[in-house]
């Protein structure tokens, strides 16, 4: 079986989002813009590594109410705690090792903010948010929210490390997140000197994204907060010279038109205009 080589290395871009939350934007990434960048990672639209940071006492850093339409968000928390509320009445507490899958579908307004004790005392926060495109047939689906607690996707020990699978299958382990787009998504931690290899279906997009440390993929070193988009092959194979923490992504491209405007991702400009109008007139709901 042939390991997939690195096709493109894209360094993440440091920025802020929400209410003063520092993050590294990994997808689309520096030098990539608009729908061309989205097509390169189809069906993944955006990936942010927020933190790691320590919230000072009294902070309100977080993601206040904002809308989405046409895709899903999968938010994974590594440390800290966030609370979620949305316009469908969905709510939940995001704990370390847990995730939340939100279907924006036809339109939703939500917020992700620190829990009250963080507001009072401060504390560390770190996580990854992934945007997953919805196929055209699902973009008008009812919005909704699913809690994915740490107990439902525990760490699994593997040679030289451990893996937590959020969606799809990696290393024979199935994750709990269900998405219309066919994806496989996991958090992998490797010890110094460890190797990892797992198959990926032909034709699927595949990427390796270190969060801490670096890994080597087919002779190419991939540093932290960098997206390694992989070329065709049978497996994802990597080596960690030192301890490393990374995200594994694979997905079947949708191959559909992509038109994006801020928090809306649709198939045509007319659908974007409709999304803007629906949000401005309150048809996506309110908190």
TrEMBL record:
Residues 33-132 form the Pirin N-terminal domain. Residues 185-285 form the Pirin C-terminal domain. The keyword Metal-binding applies. Gene3D superfamilies: Jelly Rolls. The keyword Ribosomal protein does not apply. Keywords: Iron, Metal-binding. InterPro entries: Pirin, Pirin_C_dom, Pirin_N_dom, RmlC-like_jellyroll, RmlC_Cupin_sf. Binds 1 Fe cation per subunit. Its cofactor is Fe cation. Fe cation binds at residues 66, 68, 110, 112. Pfam families: Pirin (PF02678), Pirin_C (PF05726). It comes from the Bacteria. GO terms for molecular function: metal ion binding. Belongs to the pirin family. This is Pirin family protein.
């Amino acid at each position: 079986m042939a390991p997939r080589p690195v096709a493109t290395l894209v360094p993440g871009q440091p920025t802020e989002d929400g209410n003063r939350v520092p993050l590294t934007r990994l997808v689309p990434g520096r030098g990539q813009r608009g729908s061309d960048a989205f097509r390169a990672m189809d069906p993944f639209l955006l990936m942010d590594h927020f933190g790691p940071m320590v919230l000072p006492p009294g902070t309100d850093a977080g993601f206040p109410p904002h809308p989405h339409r046409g895709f899903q968000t999968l938010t994974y928390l590594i440390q800290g705690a966030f609370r979620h509320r949305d316009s469908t009445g969905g709510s939940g507490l995001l704990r370390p090792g847990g995730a939340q899958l939100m279907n924006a579908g036809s339109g939703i307004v939500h917020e992700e903010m620190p829990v009250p004790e963080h507001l009072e005392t401060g504390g560390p926060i770190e996580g990854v948010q992934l945007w997953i495109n919805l196929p055209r047939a699902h973009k008008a689906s009812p919005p909704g929210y699913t809690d994915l607690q740490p107990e439902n996707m525990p760490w699994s020990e593997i040679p030289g490390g451990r893996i937590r699978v959020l969606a799809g299958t990696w290393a024979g382990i199935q994750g709990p997140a269900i998405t219309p787009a066919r994806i496989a998504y996991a958090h992998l931690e490797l010890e110094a000197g460890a190797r990892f290899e797992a198959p990926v279906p032909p034709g699927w997009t595949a990427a390796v994204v270190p969060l801490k440390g670096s890994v080597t993929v087919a002779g190419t070193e991939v540093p932290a907060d960098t997206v390694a988009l992989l070329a065709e092959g049978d497996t994802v194979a990597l080596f960690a010279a030192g301890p490393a923490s990374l995200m594994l992504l694979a997905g079947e491209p949708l191959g559909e038109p992509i038109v994006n405007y801020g928090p809306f991702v649709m198939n045509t400009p007319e659908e974007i205009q409709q999304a803007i109008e629906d949000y401005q007139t309150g048809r996506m709901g309110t908190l």
